[in-house]
Each structure stands twice: as C-alpha cells, then as structure tokens.
Amino acid sequence: MGKIIVIANQKGGVGKTTTAINLSASLAVAERKTLLIDLDPQANTTSGLGIALGNGEPSVYEILIGEKTAEELIHATEIEFLKVLPSRSALIGAEVELVGAISRETRLKRALAKIKDNFNYIFIDCPPSLGLLTVNALTAADALIVPIQCEYYAMEGLGQLLKTIQLVSEHLNPRLKIEGILLTMFDTRLSLSHQVTSEIRSHFGAQVFRTVIPRSVRLSEAPSFGKPVLLYDIKSAGAQRYLELASELLEREEVR
Amino acid sequence: MGKIIVIANQKGGVGKTTTAINLSASLAVAERKTLLIDLDPQANTTSGLGIALGNGEPSVYEILIGEKTAEELIHATEIEFLKVLPSRSALIGAEVELVGAISRETRLKRALAKIKDNFNYIFIDCPPSLGLLTVNALTAADALIVPIQCEYYAMEGLGQLLKTIQLVSEHLNPRLKIEGILLTMFDTRLSLSHQVTSEIRSHFGAQVFRTVIPRSVRLSEAPSFGKPVLLYDIKSAGAQRYLELASELLEREEVR
Ligand SMILES: Nc1ncnc2c1ncn2[C@@H]1O[C@H](COP(=O)(O)OP(=O)(O)OP(=O)(O)O)[C@@H](O)[C@H]1O
Ligand SMILES: Nc1ncnc2c1ncn2[C@@H]1O[C@H](COP(=O)(O)OP(=O)(O)OP(=O)(O)O)[C@@H](O)[C@H]1O
Ligand SMILES: [Mg+2]
Ligand SMILES: [Mg+2]
Questions:
Q1: Would you call B10 an interface residue with chain A, using a CB distance cutoff of 8 Å?
Q2: Cβ neighbours of residue B142 under 8 Å, at least 6 residues apart?
Q3: pLDDT, tens digit (0-9, with 9 covering 90-100), for B157-186
Q4: Partner B contacted by A225 (CB < 8 A)
Q5: pLDDT of B192-242, one tens digit each?
Q6: Atom 16 in ligand 2: which residue has the minimum CA distance?
Q7: Which has the closest alpha carbon to B158: B149, A112, A146, B53?
Q8: Which residue is closest in CA terms to ligand 1's atom 9?
Q9: How far is Cα B23 from Cα B16, in angstroms, rounded to an integer?
C-alpha cells in the first residue's frame, strides 16, 4: 500500500505543480485513494485546487515542526478519492528553524508513517530548490518523478539533481529510485522541443515516460478556477495526456 | 556610478535569467559598462552566455567564501562592454556553509565595494528561492527588477517577495527599492495573459515597466547558441523588446 512519489526538479517553472495536481487527480478519478502534499511555501498546489486557508489555520509547516499530525490536516477536494495536505508561506520558516534540529531530514517521513497505508498513492510537490524541504520529501519517498521542460536550460540542472538523489539514497533512503522523467510543455512546432526531447531520450532511455505533456493553455487556465484540468476541460490535450500518464503509471504497477 | 540591480522572484521559470542576460546585453551595446553576476547554482546565466568553466576553475562561490576577489574572476563576453562573474554548482554549498558565518548577509556587498565604480550597471541573477543567496543580492543592491510571468500563479508569490524586501530594507539595506515590475511571456492570443496583466497593473500602477516582453521562441533558442538574443536574431520581438526595456531604464536614469 501507499506508494510515496515525489515530484522534484530545482529548475523553476518546469511543471512540478501542474504535474502534481493533474496526475494525482487522474489517479483519483480512477478510484485510487490519493493524497497530495504541498511542500512548497509558494503553496501553488494548494491554491491550484481552490483551497484557501484561514488566518492561523495550520498547514504542513505545523506537521514538520511537530505541532500537528498529518491525519489532523487532511483536506477534501471536489474529487472523492483526492485529499490534500495544504501549504502556506509560513513553511518558509521551516528550512531555517530545522537546520539545528535532531534528525531534521526525516521529519516528513515519520509524520507520514501512520497514514501511509490509508492511501494507494501519496504525491509530494516540491519547491524549486534542493534544500531541507526537498530533502525531507526525497527521504520519505519510494520514487521520484522529474518533470523536464522541453527547453535549452532543461538539461543543465539534471546533474545536480542526480547528485542529490545519490546522496539521499546513500545516507537517508536506500529505496529511493527514479520512477520516470516526464517531458513537459512540448510544442510540436518548435525545433527546440524536438532537439531537447531526443537528447533527453538518448540520455535516459526507458526512464523517460512514453507520455509527453504538450504546451496546452487549458493547463495554465485551470488553476485560476481552482480545478484540475480534467474538471475544467476534459477534452483538452493537457487533460488527456495526464490521464494517459496515470494509466502508464498504473500499467507499470500491475506489471511489477 | 555603479548602480546594482537585482533580478529576483522566488517563483520559478518566470524569465529572471532571460531578463538578466538580455537587459544587460542591451545596455552594453548602448556602451554602458555592465557587469552581470550569476548568483544561481544552476548557472543558467553563465551557460546562456556560452561560458564554460574548467575543472576547479573558481566562480562566484569563491568570492562569497572569501577565497577570491571579484576583480580576479571577471570574464569577458562577445560584447565589449559586457562582463560576467560566472557561477557553478559548487555555489549550492554556500547557503549551508555561510549559515553560521559572521555577517553572512553582507558578503556579496563587501566583495563588490571595490569594483562597483568600474561599471555603470551591475546586474545580479538570482535562484528561485528567498534564501541566503538572494538575501546577499538584495543587501548589495540599489534596486530590484521583478519579472512576472503572465500566468495565474504569478500573483501568488508576490506577497512573500514583498515581505522579504521589507525585512531586508529594515535590517540590512535601507536604500533598496523596486526599480520595476516586468511582465514576461505575454501572449496576445491568451485571455489569461490579458487578465493577469490588468490585475498586476491595477496593483502596482507606475511601478510596472511600460515595456512588456512577449513569448518569443527566439528568446528560448538563443541560450543554446550561448548568445544574448540581440546577437542571435536582432529583428525578433524578444530582442526588440529588451532593447526597448534598456532605453526605458536609461530614460528613467536621465530624468532623475
Ligand atoms: N503543459 C503546459 N502547458 C502550458 N502551460 C503550462 C504547462 N505546464 C505548466 N504550465 C504553466 O507554466 C507555469 C509553470 O508551471 P508550474 O507552476 O506547474 O511549474 P513548477 O515547476 O511547479 O514551478 P515552481 O518551480 O515555481 O514550483 C504555470 O503558470 C503553469 O500554469
Ligand atoms: N519571453 C519569453 N518567451 C519565450 N520563452 C522564454 C521567454 N522568457 C524566458 N523563456 C524561456 O522560459 C524558460 C524559463 O526562463 P528563465 O530560465 O529565464 O526563467 P528563470 O526565472 O530564470 O528560471 P529559474 O527560476 O529556474 O531561475 C527558459 O527555457 C527560457 O528560455
Ligand atoms: Mg510549483
Ligand atoms: Mg534563472
């Protein structure tokens, strides 16, 4: 039960949040019990699903510092099988406050231990950095999905990310593995998209998901309505591709 | 002499590096002596200008930890009046290593003091976070340019950024002010672009630059040739808008 999948890449704006929201929503409509955790102080996953925390309302920050349990902060969404652990800007403080704390890297892992088996999938959306929040996510994780934008700078940061994964799997989490590399914002009209895609496939081979997410304006409009794209426009290319990605993920599970 | 302008926004992928490279290149071709500092461990500014550091070659990391002076590490570019202080992934270590160091926030400011008057403009490209690297940049700065993508999540992080600017100006740098807010990746065909733009203009009024940067594929292709867009395709909309932005900035200077 309970496979924890982290969505991470320190390069900014590559589609981490968009993947976290739409992949988890696609699995939830396939009736897999899914929890989505927002571990970014920007809280884009939280607002992208239309969740607004009231003044002083606790968030994943209180879980990391030990004031609340994960169970207490699970929020429902419009989709029955999709739940969310929301974030807020207070989370910015966690990186600094936990620097000197005991076993600061395993806070999230320990907080999720009790609820892990209540879900089929737990996704964690990360901020665009390799700091303590992302290390907490990688330490708690079973697997990692790396979204990569089909643009020139996409390949630059991969070396650093792979080094961090190596360090985490050596010292904190030996079971961590890459579930897959996801190509995002692919534009068939641009030769750059084709060049980057073929370079990434030649580097990473079968680790790259078959499903490629196209640039699709519906994907960037959906969060302004607080909805995953499949509730905003199910016929759009963005919605269809994320449903396909969910099936590709489930296919891999069944085969194992 | 020597106006230090920081390009910052913790939201990822909004065009910080693209603005840092192309605005500084546009000022350099107008024969303003310009230094561009890459303060992001991803080193996209460095590679976007075709600079490749050899094994063990020092970077801005060695300046922050005090092993090298800024003067020693200035690199030339294809444009006579444009120089660069390059970055590399070792910079990731600075955030952790400097946490306990004395006056960790003013390292960059002190390193730039000796060379500041050799340039008309010094630009600093920041990583997508509000950690010690960005705080060092804001402490050294005279002014700040905030690129904002014309997308839904654009407004979300602004509150946090403004709070950080407030803290820096109260405790570390009373002269810090917002030079301007720059709208990037504007697509005239998308209603979302128009909605976000009018919302940002109504919030920030005259602080928003008149010049708006359109989504332009030439801008995303240029870094793969290691060139600013004005050397790659001067006639493109991207190149023309950044030249206009440089004139708008110079106009403001002349008026003051
Ligand atoms: N396939 C797509 N087509 C069009 N727009 C997209 C697509 N994927 C994401 N976007 C838009 O691009 C922007 C960046 O995406 P997103 O916020 O998901 O990236 P991120 O990696 O989570 O960013 P950050 O590094 O700031 O956390 C958002 O405005 C989003 O709506
Ligand atoms: N106006 C534009 N039109 C088209 N593509 C653009 C434009 N501006 C930037 N890009 C592309 O979008 C991507 C993100 O831009 P960029 O890397 O400059 O953002 P950033 O804010 O520096 O990202 P990070 O948060 O990772 O530092 C890059 O691939 C870049 O080439
Ligand atoms: Mg995100
Ligand atoms: Mg950048």
A1: yes
A2: B3, B4, B5, B175, B176, B177
A3: 888 899 999 999 999 999 999 999 999 999
A4: no
A5: 999 999 999 999 999 999 999 999 999 999 999 999 999 999 999 999 999
A6: B15
A7: B149
A8: A15
A9: 10
